[in-house]
Structures are given as C-alpha cells and as structure tokens.
Amino acid sequence: MNFTDQLAQAQRLHHSLLCVGLDPEPSKFPGAWQGQPDRIYDFCAAIVDATKDLVCAFKPQIAYFAAHRAEDQLERLMAHMRRVAPSVPVILDAKRGDIGSTADQYAHEAFTRYQADAVTLSPFMGFDTMEPFLRFPGKGVILLCRTSNPGGSDLQNLRLADIPGQPRVYEHIAAQAQGPWNTNGQMGLVVGATFPEEIARVRELAPTLPLLIPGVGAQGGDAAATVKAGLKTDASGAITGTIVVNSSRAVLYASSGDDFASAARRVALQTRDALNAAR
C-alpha cells in the first residue's frame, strides 16, 4: 500500500486527522526518566502505545534522536510502530535538502534504514532534491511550503518576478508539487496552522495533495480554522484533499508524572475530537 492510501485508510479506521509528533526531550521526561537519553525509546513507545488508535500518522523528528546519539533507538521505535500500529503511516521529519549522491544517501536513510512511509524535504535546491526520494515506489515526499515559524516569511512570501502572475515562493512550490514535481503521485506539502488564510491558498493551488499541518497545540494554531482552510471534500462529503494535523509537545508532555502516557492519550483524544468537530 502506498503512503497516500495508507494515510486515507488510517484516517477512516481511526476517524482521525491527528498526527502525533515524536520530539523526545529527555529534560522533560517524567519521574526517574528525566534527563535520561537512554529512555528515549521507552518514552516514545509508551506514547505510541497510548495513542495508536487515535491518530492517522506518527511523525518522529530525527534531530531529537540524533542529538542524543539515539539513532539506534529510533530504529527500534520505527520497528515498534510497524509492529503495534501497522495501519498508521510514519512520517520521518528530517527536512533533508541536498542533491546528487548525498540526496541518494538521505533517501536510503529514510526509506531503507528507518523504513519510513514518508519524509519531509526542503525544496530550496529544486527538483534534484526530490528525485532520489521519488524513485522509491509508494513512498511519500512532503515538501516545506508555508511553514509555521514567523521567519518563514523572509523567503516564502517573496514574489517571483520571472513567473507570469508573480506568485509568491510558497504558491509556486504548491503549484509545482500539484503538477510536474509529483512524479510518483505521493507528494504532500507542509503548511503551518498559524497561517489559515495561506493554508486555504495552498489548498486552492494543490487541491488533492495531503497537507501536513504543524502548529496546533503548543504553537497556538486554531484547530477549527485549520480544518476549514485545508480539508477539501466533494458534494458527497468524501475527502478529496486531506490534512494531517500535527501536535507534538501538547501531547508528549501533557503530564510530568507517572501518568504521562494516559495524559497524552487524553490530550490526543481531545485534539482528535476538536478536529472532527470542525469538519
């Protein structure tokens, strides 16, 4: 099953648009685990076990593992997710953005070493950045488009004078991803929940692509506005352009006590239900 089919299946099965981001910070771990990087796997696996029936995807951020020499724990976690939540796709949040043989190695890392179903990429160096990843049949490639950070406007909101209509950079990325870049039919876009009007613009330009939307929860993005702007349905109510709404810190660190996993489940359930109520 390819990434977009797996995503659609998980959304139907769990009635969910929620993605839980796995950004483990040992300094925030509960109880005796606090400050213990060798507990990264244990912490993340407990979150996965507590929320696996509430989500449409998981999104481990590779930097949180690599910073603590925990890539082996990430491999174990990826295997754990495939075992206990085989219907839930895993998006490796790596934001790679290189070309040539280096991009080949990054693609091998994401899809062969870690067995991810999709990976986030930076499109700054153009199609050459994506091409090695698109060679992997059925794997998702999710491009940074209009990110949730304030500094994203430094480049993403600039107009391109050499293109008819002078689209903004993020608009051009969206149009290319909907069109010629999407050679394997598995491309998506990252659009921040802090910019609902621009989510709507990206959806206009890329009506069928899945949108990975961070920023709901700790970053203050509004769930209802996000769903209204990004989720596209036809006259029968069937989803024709889906969204994957990520929440990380609000779920992971819902409690600093021994009840952290049950607290994470409670917040994930609340977030899932808020997203569904906005449909």
Automatic annotation (TrEMBL):
<feature type="active site" description="Proton donor">
    <location>
        <position position="95"/>
    </location>
</feature>
<dbReference type="InterPro" id="IPR001754">
    <property type="entry name" value="OMPdeCOase_dom"/>
</dbReference>
<dbReference type="InterPro" id="IPR013785">
    <property type="entry name" value="Aldolase_TIM"/>
</dbReference>
<comment type="pathway">
    <text>Pyrimidine metabolism; UMP biosynthesis via de novo pathway; UMP from orotate: step 2/2.</text>
</comment>
<dbReference type="GO" id="GO:0006207">
    <property type="term" value="P:'de novo' pyrimidine nucleobase biosynthetic process"/>
</dbReference>
<dbReference type="GO" id="GO:0044205">
    <property type="term" value="P:'de novo' UMP biosynthetic process"/>
</dbReference>
<dbReference type="Pfam" id="PF00215">
    <property type="entry name" value="OMPdecase"/>
</dbReference>
<dbReference type="GO" id="GO:0004590">
    <property type="term" value="F:orotidine-5'-phosphate decarboxylase activity"/>
</dbReference>
<keyword id="KW-0210">Decarboxylase</keyword>
<protein>
    <recommendedName>
        <fullName>Orotidine 5'-phosphate decarboxylase</fullName>
        <ecNumber>4.1.1.23</ecNumber>
    </recommendedName>
</protein>
<dbReference type="InterPro" id="IPR018089">
    <property type="entry name" value="OMPdecase_AS"/>
</dbReference>
<comment type="similarity">
    <text>Belongs to the OMP decarboxylase family. Type 2 subfamily.</text>
</comment>
<feature type="domain" description="Orotidine 5'-phosphate decarboxylase">
    <location>
        <begin position="17"/>
        <end position="264"/>
    </location>
</feature>
<keyword id="KW-0456">Lyase</keyword>
<dbReference type="InterPro" id="IPR011995">
    <property type="entry name" value="OMPdecase_type-2"/>
</dbReference>
<keyword id="KW-0665">Pyrimidine biosynthesis</keyword>
<dbReference type="InterPro" id="IPR011060">
    <property type="entry name" value="RibuloseP-bd_barrel"/>
</dbReference>
